[in-house]
Amino acid sequence: MQIPDFEIYTPGAESGWQKTRSEVLFANPHVGVEKAFFTTPNRKSEVPWMVVKRKAAVAIAPMLEDGRFVMVHQERLPVMQTMWEFPAGQIDTAVTRESIIHTIQNELREECGCALHPDLGTLQPLGWYFPSQGFTDEIVYLFTAKPVCVVSRPEPDGSEHISDVRFVSAGELRGMIAANAITNALTLALYARIAAQGLP
User: Fold this and answer.
1) Which residues lie below 8 Å from residue 27, measured CB to CB, with a gap of 6+?
2) Is-cis flag, bond preceding 78, omega within 30?
3) What does the pLDDT read at residue 70?
4) Which of 46, 118, 120, 126 has the smallest CB count inside 10 Å?
5) Tens-digit pLDDT profile for residues 111-148
6) What does the pLDDT read at residue 12?
7) Closest to 69 measured CA to CA, from 89, 90, 84
8) Rounded Cα gap, residues 41 and 62, in angstroms
9) What does pLDDT average to over the chain?
10) Distance between CA atoms of 23 and 13, rounded to whole angstroms?
11) Please, what is the angle between helix 185-196 and helix 170-178, to 10°?
12) Whose CA is closest to 76, among 161, 165, 182?
């Protein structure tokens, strides 16, 4: 598969921003807490802030040849709820185009048992978003994958539990969003980007 050309976010690229110093208060393989000090375009004195560090991630809207979206019903322990979501996952290595594509392919297979169609499949990058920019530096890269084929049962890793996979039309997905049946940021952000670009 040809790797599509897309931009990768660079922290601090906007003029006038600088992290002047920082101290790691907590770190494990999944999350870190950092006390950081910044100067900004409008504040030249140091501004202290607690930043939760997270790996970058991907979120993918898989679509079948008939236009239906593939969604997973995944348990989310922090909020003690099983949620309908698009497949998503963290990038475990340095963030490059290649590592992003590799993560997308893995998450499609692991979470919904899908793969891009071998002849017709394409990935369309839709930019990125910040899930909670007031306290974490986490960034999620957004994509559509179409068409996809179901090739296996989901194979979630040991920390995940996926109870169901569902194929929904664009109209059904909009109805789920309107009825507050979808409440997770990654699915809402990804569908907002899809809708804004005039896709189904």
Assistant:
1) 33, 53
2) no
3) 97
4) 118
5) 999 999 999 999 999 999 999 999 999 999 999 999 99
6) 85
7) 84
8) 39
9) 94
10) 22
11) 130
12) 161
Length of the chain: 200
Between the alpha carbon of residue 40 and those of residues 11, 12, 49, 93, 173, the distances in Å are 13, 10, 12, 29, 40
Look up the pTM and report it: 0.94
List CB contacts of 156: < 8 A, sequence separation 6 or more. Answer: 110, 111, 162
Structure tokens of 179? 């009825």
DSSP 70-104: EEEEEEEGGGTEEEEE--EEE--S---HHHHHHHH
Contacts of 98 (CB under 8 A, 6+ apart): 3
Question: Average pLDDT for residues 148-172, to the nearest whole number?
Answer: 88
Question: DSSP states of the chain as a string?
Answer: -PPPP-----TT-STT-EEEEEEEEEE-SS-EEEEEEEE-SS--S-EEEEEEE---EEEEEEB-TTSPEEEEEEEEGGGTEEEEE--EEE--S---HHHHHHHHHHHHHHHHSEEE-TTT-EEEEEEEE-TTTTTB---EEEEEEESEEE-S-----TT--EEEEEEE-HHHHHHHHHTT----HHHHHHHHHHHHTT--
